[in-house]
Structures are given as C-alpha cells and as structure tokens.
Design a protein that fits this description.
The protein is an alpha/beta fold and 357 residues long. The chain has two domains: 3-161 and 341-356, 3-Layer(aba) Sandwich (Rossmann fold), CATH 3.40.50.2000; 164-338, 3-Layer(aba) Sandwich (Rossmann fold). The protein is 46% helix and 15% strand. The protein is built from 14 helices and 13 strands. The chain has helices at residues 12-28, 44-50, 69-91, 105-115, 130-135, 163-166, 170-181, 200-215, 247-253, 263-272, 287-298, 311-322, 325-338, 343-356; strands spanning 3-7, 33-38, 54-57, 96-99, 119-123, 141-144, 154-156, 189-193, 219-223, 238-241, 256-259, 276-278, 301-303. Helix 8 (200-215) links the parallel strand 8 and strand 9. Helix 1 (12-28) packs across helix 14 (343-356) and helix 7 crosses helix 9. The radius of gyration is 21 Å and the shape is elongated. The chain starts with a strand and ends with a helix. The relative contact order is 0.12.
Length: 357
C-alpha cells in the first residue's frame, strides 16, 4: 500500500488542485492511504475533512520579509515545524510527499528530504511562490501550469482540475444550465465573476454598462460575490447571483467570460475553450497578469487592467468583441491549444515516477 502526503493550503488556489489529485489517487487505488498536511488557519481545515480525508497539522510559520518579532522567532519556530512533519512522515510511513505551495509546504519539503522520502512540487501560478521555489531545488519532479514559469526543473503538466470540470460536456449541459439560471439557451451569454467575494471593479462597471451588452443581443450571468455591493435591476437578460455553487453549469452556459485571472480560473477557462477578457487583480505580486499572459499570447484572451475596466472601455472593446463572431471563433480555437483537462493525470504520472527512483 502506498501512502501519499499531499501538502498545501491557506487558499482555494492551493486546496482545490490538491483535492483533485487526492480524489484521483483514491479512485485509482482504494487501498492507497491519502493524507493531507495543512495548517489550522487555512481553508483546508474545512474543505479537506468535508471531502473525507484525514488532515494532519503543521504550525503556520511565514518566511520573514522584514525585521520584526516574527523574524526573531523564525529560527526557533521553523525547525519545530520541520520536526512536526518528520514525525508525521515516520509515524504514517509516508512514501511520497506532494506539495502545492503555501505555508505547509516549505517545512514538508525539508522534512521529506531529511527523511529520504521523494517529493514532487506543483506550482499553479506563473509567478511561483517562495516555498515552491526553494522546494524545487531538490524535488524529484516539478510540475507547472504555465509555460515559462521561472522555477528550477519545471515541466508543464497543467492544472489538476475538479472532476466536474474535466467531465463537462458544455453542449450537452447548456439547456440544463440555462434553466438553472433562468436564461435562454438559444441566445449568447456573457459570464462575469470576480471570485467568491466578488470584485468591486467588475460589479461597479457592469452596473453602468450592462445595458450596452444586453443591447448588443447578449444575456449576462453575473456573480457579484458574497460581499454583494451590486444592485439587481430586475432585467431578465441580466441575471445577478451572489455566488455560483454550480460553477460547471455557469461554464456550460458561458460563450464569453469576463473575470479575474487567478491560476485556477485561467486553467479552467482555457481547458473548456471559452474566450475570455481577464481583468487581473492589481494587488499582490502581479501574478494574475502573468497567469493571463499565456492566454493573451495564444490569442485566447484579452487583458484589461483593473484601472482601465470602465464602462467606456466595455463599450469600446468588450461590446465590439461580442459582436465579432469571427474573432470569438478564433479565440475558442486558440484556447484549445493552451488548455488541458489532463493536469491531474499528468501530475500523478510525475508522482509515480518519483516513487520508482
């Protein structure tokens, strides 16, 4: 029996690909032991047990980025975290560690190395995180989503995607999706979303520009986020929801997407071959703009900076795109050249190779 320790967490961007791999490993071999390592502070504390996996814990120890109290405590706390993971590896007889980044992964990589256990790194973003950059130096394999990701030994494997996305037949599910959202399946749909909490920029711009989109013959499905600051005008062609708990149905209905460009979003949209206009989140390390760059280069997407996503820009660029059938067809074809639904299988192949070295 093989024992896998999958590590990562904090955000859905780390947890969701981890769970996709966990599900595939368990489906392939019901005798395999699939364990997850995370911190007590991240989304993994809810998502992992809900999926039926045992969650092991390690202390959350951020790398110090400035001289302060946390930096002074780091030389004591980080070795303690490594020791915690080494204990998990020994007591659970772990055969291989697979890291997806985040606070739990850095001590896991060092613990695996010191215990002589192979480990594999998966980096979802075009701009890699520090834990994965350091871990890649001695990894048995390093999988990335985007070509050109600056990480040692990186090989493009794609994003491990949720089964409901991998198996989605958009044409077959379109009528069901239209019925679920109260829209007409025979007319085109623009899907707009900004993540679970929403995006104020997208919400504010759509509040002023939706009439121009509807006037061009399109319907809109707009997920405004749980922190809903949008007002529903009550127009049947402009459907507002706070949250999309059936994202696969939204994707089945979407002919074009306007969204942020988190790694998972870009990977899923590209895998499904949907033309996109990305509005990268401007806060952080600029990784969202980099995530969208490969789709832009391929011709599968357009990028509008957050500050420029205004009603005027929607009218001058987005609406003309929606009216250009040839341009949209070319974008769909381009998405097929960069997207993949086999990210999970590709990463598991890398894990298998690490086990036989």
């Amino acid at each position: 029996m093989t024992t896998y320790l999958l590590t990562g967490g904090g955000t859905a961007g780390h947890v969701n690909p981890l769970l996709a791999v966990a599900d595939a490993l368990r489906a392939r071999d019901v005798e395999a032991s699939v364990l997850v390592l995370g911190t007590r502070e991240g989304l993994e504390t809810r998502l992992v047990p809900d999926r039926g996996y045992e969650l092991l814990f390690v202390d959350r120890v951020p790398f110090p980025r400035r001289p302060n109290g946390a930096a002074a405590r780091f030389p004591v706390r980080f070795p303690r975290a490594i020791a915690q993971v080494r204990t998990h590896i020994r007591t659970r007889a772990v055969d291989v560690v697979v890291g997806f980044g985040g606070y739990a992964s850095a001590p896991a990589y060092l613990a695996a190395r010191r215990e002589g256990v192979p480990y594999v790194v998966h980096e979802a973003n075009a701009k890699p995180g520090l834990a994965n950059v350091l871990g890649a130096r001695a990894a048995s394999g390093v999988g990335v989503v985007f070509e050109g990701t600056p990480i040692r030994g990186g090989r493009v494997v794609g994003m491990p995607l949720r089964r409901e996305i991998v198996d989605l037949d958009r044409d077959e599910r379109r009528a069901e999706a239209a019925d679920a959202f109260g829209l007409d399946p025979s007319r085109p749909v623009l899907l707009v979303f900004g993540g679970s909490l929403g995006a104020r920029r997208l919400n504010g711009t759509l509040a002023e520009a939706w009439r121009d989109i509807v006037g061009a013959g399109w319907q809109i499905l707009h997920a405004t986020g749980e922190r809903n600051d949008a007002v529903d005008p009550g127009q049947p062609d402009y459907r507002i929801v706070s949250y999309l708990d059936r994202m696969e149905l939204a994707f089945a209905l979407a002919d074009v997407i306007v969204s942020r460009s988190g790694a998972a979003t870009v990977a899923e949209v590209s895998a499904l071959g949907i033309p996109a206009v990305y509005v990268p989140y401007p806060v952080g390390n600029g990784e969202q703009a980099l995530n969208a760059a490969s789709a832009l280069r391929a011709g599968a997407a357009r990028i509008i900076p957050d500050a420029d996503f205004t009603p005027v820009r929607v009218r001058s660029e987005v609406v003309p795109l929606l009216q250009d059938a040839a341009a949209l067809a070319a974008m769909r074809a381009a998405a097929a050249t960069i997207g993949t639904r086999s990210g999970t299988a590709n990463l598991i192949e890398m894990i298998d190779a690490a086990l036989v070295r």
